[in-house]
Specification:
Elements (H helix, E strand, L loop, with lengths): L5 E8 L3 H12 L8 E4 L45 H15 L4 E2 L4 E7 L2 E6 L3 E9 L21 E4 L13 E5 L3 H10 L5 E6 L5 E2 L5 H16 L7 H5 L1 E2 L2 H9 L4 E3 L3 E2 L3 E3 L5 E3 L2 E4 L24 E2 L5 E2 L5 E3 L8 H18 L3 H11 L1
Parallel strand pairs: 1-2, 1-6, 2-3, 6-19, 7-16, 8-9, 8-16, 9-12, 10-11
Antiparallel strand pairs: 4-5, 5-6, 13-14, 14-15, 17-18
The protein binds flavin-adenine dinucleotide.
Length: 372
Amino acid sequence: MSNLAYKIDILVIGGGQAGLSAAYHLHRLGLKGGKEFLLLDKSPEPGGAWQFRWPSLTMKTINRLHDLPGMRFAEVLDPGQTEVRAAEAVPAYFRAYEQRFQLPVYRPVTVRLVCGRGERLRIETDHETFSARGIINATGTWDAPQIPYYPGRELFQGRQMHTHDYQRPEEFAGKRVVIVGAGISALQFLDEISRVAARTIWVTRRPPEFHEGDFTAEDGRAAVARVEERVRQGLIPGSVVSVTGIPITPAIRAMQDRGVLNRQPMFSEITPTGIRWPDGREEAVDVILWATGFRSALDHLAPLQLREENGGIVMTGRLATQAARDPRVHLVGYGPSASTIGANRAGGAAAGELVQFLGLASSTSEREAHAK
Ligand SMILES: Cc1cc2nc3c(=O)[nH]c(=O)nc-3n(C[C@H](O)[C@H](O)[C@H](O)COP(=O)(O)OP(=O)(O)OC[C@H]3O[C@@H](n4cnc5c(N)ncnc54)[C@H](O)[C@@H]3O)c2cc1C
């Protein structure tokens, strides 16, 4: 590979909610797109991971999408249009957003490796190599599906798939399906698949915590605070559901009424034809659907050695976006900011702090003063 590297001050990696928010704030702080900052995105189109989500995930069935800073989603889609697929609506919004603020997004470009080179960072991609003074990493989780290991997994003769691969319930017609996981996606799959499958079995490691009533803004803040506390201590963030529980929605009630919400404990073993529990009970299944979440897609940052021995990363800064081991590196959409609202705020905090840290703040305010 050539040693020539394209020099830039700040590189944003990833073009989902978190990356766009960071780019918007860098632009607002007066940095010149293309000269002082750039955004690289691996996805073929605008929309971050939303463009890959299954067709039955609509604006009605998602949790809630928060507006990106500076432009309302309602400008692109009427709030009443709840049946529209999230995989179409959100990408349309992100595309309009990138155009409105003329954000310098280069895609599809995959960042393969980021390593230290003295005072700069070297960023190797499947296209050019870049040399940056700081990075804001916003690569999400979609590319890192998490499947826990159970003995016998490699011997199973049926089909195993993850949330990442789910498309439509019709694929499961007449099949015996075990759905693993206690999150919102697992429940949506159970709802859809139980209508067409020969049999569904729902298993979770811990009994799911359902709660009555809406999830309030206060609940949200408390959940985020707990995850933030974890990452400030260098612990692995943990899933959002592990701190929020599952709200009892009309869809959940309807599942209860249909008798499909029968949670079973986790099996301990996978056989060639099914699953086995610790007491020896067995069930034959055709499909194991792992709705077991994602981890953060950070492998390209491995050379920076940000991780502690336990695998966590000590985070610091106003909203815990700055990697304590290398302050030139911010992670947004990670830990407490792994939601659309969190990603928005984190983008702003990371942009402001990194610009300050790199001493770009004075030049931007000087520039702004000249421009007036
Ligand atoms: C099924 C599902 C439903 C969800 N529903 C909601 C919801 O309703 N409300 C909510 O607030 N949150 C929801 N979330 C969480 C939500 O997706 C995130 O909070 C938010 O959209 C993530 O934004 P992001 O920018 O961090 O990541 P992403 O949207 O994943 O964007 C990351 C981008 O980085 C790119 N990328 C990855 N690796 C590289 C690389 N090496 N080089 C270059 N580019 C790279 C990807 O291609 C992608 O475009 C949901 C998550 C899932 C899995």
